[in-house]
Amino acid sequence: MRETRFLLWAFLLYTLIGLxxxxxxxxxxxxxxxxxxxxxVAYLMPFLAALPALYLLAxxxxxxxxxxxxxxxxxxxxxxxxxxNGWRLLVVVGxxxxxxxxxxxxxxxxxxTFVGVVALTFWSIVVVIFEVYALSVSYKLLAxxxxxxxxx
Length: 152
Hints:
The chain has 152 residues and is mainly α. It is built from seven helices and no strands. The protein has helices at 2-26, 30-35, 39-60, 63-68, 75-81, 86-107, 114-151. It is globular.
């Protein structure tokens, strides 16, 4: 049952985030991106457009460690648990994967060779393990903080 709930939440959350990112990208005018004189800004604008969706993902992604340890928590409970820590969670859930993906793609050139594919797969697995660990630690610390504040 836990695995089914996990997969259902993953499907729902990532579908919602995907729709929000698609909507935010559709609001970006194409001519603005192509006519910009600054080369870095053209790459930064889609990220800035996706920032609200990534913030929502960061706040709601605490549902996954809660499901993994079978805590009875709802979306409003996860939202409440992450209050005041949304930007920190955005770093853990949004910025670290983007940064590590960029570093991996820069350090490991993706070519069609077997070695390139194996290296990229290896680093991707390492990044995913680190992200699961970081999100789990974040949930544990926030849940402990909630327990301590309820006791006091």
